[in-house]
Amino acid sequence: METKxxxxxxxxxxxxxRQIIDLIRGKAVxxxxxxxxxxxxxxxxVVTKVLNSAIANAENNFQLKRDNLYITEAYVNQGPTMxxxxxxxxxxxxxxxxxxxxxxxxxxxxxx
Length: 112
Prior knowledge:
Elements: E1 2-10, H1 14-24, H2 29-37, H3 42-62, E2 69-78, E3 82-87, E4 93-98, E5 101-109
Antiparallel strand pairs: 1-5, 2-5, 3-4
Helix pairs in contact: 2-3
């Protein structure tokens, strides 16, 4: 049984979030939480929230044991980009891209 949690429109660049997601993919849930706890990045906190949500979904909706869960899928897709302008010299303006991400974590129970 697989359960999924998704955070959409998170204000972090997908490239930065993928660096953190790649560290936890395929790990046991407890190991992944320990890894995320000691990463000094904003995206680690966001991924931790999504992971905890997926664990809660598995425990509450499907009565799965937390000790048997592992991460089967973890990926980040690009969300919409907000376009903003920054004033520059001599009356010009530069375009700034504020990127967003859709973060998805899927957990499943180990087959014994």
